[in-house]
Amino acid sequence: MTTYKIKGQSGTVEQVITLSSESPEQALEEAKQYFPPRMHNSLSISSENNEYRQLLRNHGYPERALNKLSDEECEGECEGWGFYDRTADH
């Protein structure tokens, strides 16, 4: 099981929960019971063992910045900066 942080935001209200789950998709589905329906479309997920998060860490990104990024945002940052995991099978 992996621990995921799920964040939902609606206007100025931000809610964050932590769940353990088998997959990110399962974590998002489970998280919906803790968020109002208006937040369901804006949920973002992050996990400590995300390959893109680790790649940013390896390139010196500060933890305070990484804590604010979802897994998708970490992937986008890596692509934007041209950071690629040379060991991954892409």
Keywords, separated by commas or semicolons:
3 strands, alpha+beta, 34% helix
What proportion of the residues form beta strands (DSSP E)? 15-25%
* Biggest sheet record: 3 strands, antiparallel
Biggest sheet strand line-up:
2-1-3
Order of helices and strands: EEHEHHH
Gross geometry: globular
- Which runs of at least 5 residues are low in confidence (pLDDT < 50)? none
Q: Report the mean per-residue pLDDT as an integer.
A: 89
Give the strand tally.
3
Q: Specify the helix fraction band.
A: 25-40%
Count of separate DSSP helical elements: 4
Query: How would you classify the quaternary structure?
Result: single chain
Report the span from N to C terminus. 24 Å
**Cα-based radius of gyration, to the nearest Å:** 14 Å
Q: What class would the helix/strand composition place it in?
A: alpha+beta
